[in-house]
Each structure stands twice: as structure tokens, then as C-alpha cells.
Write a structure and sequence with these properties.
32% helix, alpha/beta, binds zinc ion, seven-stranded mixed sheet, elongated
Length: 276
């Protein structure tokens, strides 16, 4: 499906993913082609993507650009490379077992003869997460930095909440008409959405601080207080989010902890003018 001039979304299987939106794989068609992310590596997904690319007679797929090395984004990369000869592109701060052909950093341009993809380093969800910016077209491929719906998991230790919020603020500095996320539908009011996401994280942080002040001391207690409606897998994700906020708060001197791992106990830092 063509979603903007020269940009196609290639449907992925939803049932392999944990109940959320399936990973999006995009094909960008300039003089040469590039895939943004690879999706999963199962036979069905791979052949549907290769067929989609092959439908463009004479198009050489030059790159498979991976926004970050999580399985739903990278696991199809090696098989897609075998079938197309494209180079796998990844940021230098991402860790993976697979052989990467081209390592990129902030500001690098991936040229497709007529279309340029600019690397925007957005750490937080993962240390080497990148977004890809088409400056002329004012389109941003956002990977998991900004999702089409809902909020991104920031699971420590690789996930870093402070960096994540900084990366959201960084996106506000780009002129963007359209965000194409790693999961979910396109976002046509990108600035508004990014501002909402920053606001949402700061509100969660306030909730964590409020919970600490009420004497909730562990990740578990805080998550149960802040996310009373969640259970099962989503509750596990929520605990990760709370933990990510606590790491940020501790680093900023707004909380302190005793013990480590699951049993660590936190308390809020004493503020000037506040009685303990
Ligand atoms: Zn991810």
C-alpha cells in the first residue's frame, strides 16, 4: 500500500506479536530502494516482502535500515538480505549477533538516488535507536520512538527514560508533516503527538514521585498504585516503566534507593522547605 509518494507500507503478520500492532515494514522507492525495518523472519513474512519489492520492475533494493535491534524489527533482516542483496544498516550503539554491512551515526545520509534518508539518533527505547528523516518531504520514520498509538516500553537496563524524553524533545526540532511509526498508523499531527508524549511521561514521573511520598517503596507497589487496571504481561511492562522512571529520578537526585534488583526500596529525596 502506497502511503505517501514513493513510500509503501508492507503488511506484516499480526499474530506473531504480543497483541499489539504488528511491526511496520516500509519500502522507500527512489532510484534505488530501501526497507525501513525488516519485521519478523518467518517464511510468510519474508516472501510477501520480497514479492512486494520485486513487483517494482528493475528496482534494486540497496538497504535494509533497522531502527533498532529488537526482534520485531530486525529478525527478518538476514533472510531479506540473502534474497535481495541489500545491505543491513544499523546504528553503532546497537548490539546484535548478525553481521551489519553499514554502521551509521547521527547525521549520516543514506542516499537512494533521489531520496535521502537522514539518520536521527534517538536513544531511550534502545541505546542505538534511530529515526530516519526525509528532509525535503518532511517525513520522519520513527521506529519505536513514537508509535501510531499508545506509548513505547522503556525497559531498563537498555531502556533509558531520561534519554527517551530528550529524544522526544529532539524530534520537536525537526520540521515534520508525517510520522511513520514502527507500529500502528501514520501520524499526521506529529508535533502535537510528540508534545503529548513528553507530557504523558512527565505526568507519570509525577505519579511516581507522589507514590514515593505516600510511602510506596518498591517497583511493585508503585506500579500497582499507578496502573491498578493492568494485569499479566501489561503489568510486567508497567513495572519496567516505573523502574525506568525511578532510575531517572535517582540519577537526578530526586529519589534514593536501598538494596538492588526486585527488592530495592526507594524513597523520595527531601526537598528544601519540605518537612520529612
Ligand atoms: Zn522495540
Amino acid at each position: 500500500m502506497e502511503i505517501a509518494q514513493g513510500i509503501h507500507s508492507i503488511p506484516a503478520e499480526i499474530d506473531r506479536f504480543l497483541g499489539f500492532y504488528a511491526p511496520q515494514v516500509y519500502l522507500v522507492v527512489g532510484g534505488e530502494g530501501a526497507l525501513i525495518d525488516s519485521g519478523y523472519g518467518d517464511e510468510g513474512s519474508i516472501s510477501s516482502r520480497v514479492d512486494y519489492v520485486n513487483a517494482f520492475a528493475g528496482l534494486r533494493l540497496a538497504y535494509i535500515v533497522i531502527t533498532h535491534a529488537h526482534p520485531d524489527h530486525i529478525s527478518g533482516a538476514v533472510r531479506l538480505r540473502e534474497k535481495t542483496g541489500a545491505k543491513i544498516v544499523l546504528h553503532s550503539a546497537e548490539q546484535t549477533d548478525i553481521a551489519v554491512d553499514k554502521v551509521v551515526a547521527e547525521g549520516d545520509i543514506i542516499s537512494l538516488n533521489g531520496i535521502d534518508l537522514e539518520v536521527v539518533h534517538t536513544p531511550g527505547h534502545n541505546p542505538g535507536h534511530i529515526c530516519l528523516y526525509m528532509r525535503k518531504e518532511r517525513i520522519m520514520f520513527s521506529g519505536d520512538q513514537v508509535l501510531g498509538q499508545g506509548t513505547t516500553a522503556i525497559p531498563p537496563p537498555k531502556g533509558d527514560m531520561a534519554q527517551y524524553i530528550d529524544s522526544l524533545r529532539k524530534l520537536l526540532g525537526y520540521d515534520i508533516d508525517l510520522i511513520l511509526p514502527g507500529h500502528g498508523p501514520p501520524l499526521r499531527e506529529p508535533q502535537r503527538r510528540v508534545k503529548e508524549l513528553i507530557q504523558h511521561r512527565l505526568e507519570r514521573e509525577e505519579q511516581v514521585i507522589a507514590g514515593l511520598r505516600q510511602g510506596k517503596a518498591t517497583v511493585k507497589e508503585l506500579a500497582a498504585e499507578i496502573y491498578p487496571e493492568l494485569a499479566g504481561f501489561l503489568y510486567e511492562v508497567a513495572k519496567g516503566q516505573v523502574y525506568a522512571h525511578l532510575i531517572k529520578l535517582e540519577r537526578e537526585g530526586k529519589a534514593s534507593s536501598q538494596g538492588s534488583g526486585k527488592d530495592a526500596r526507594y524513597k523520595p529525596a527531601l526537598e528544601r522547605g519540605r518537612c520529612a
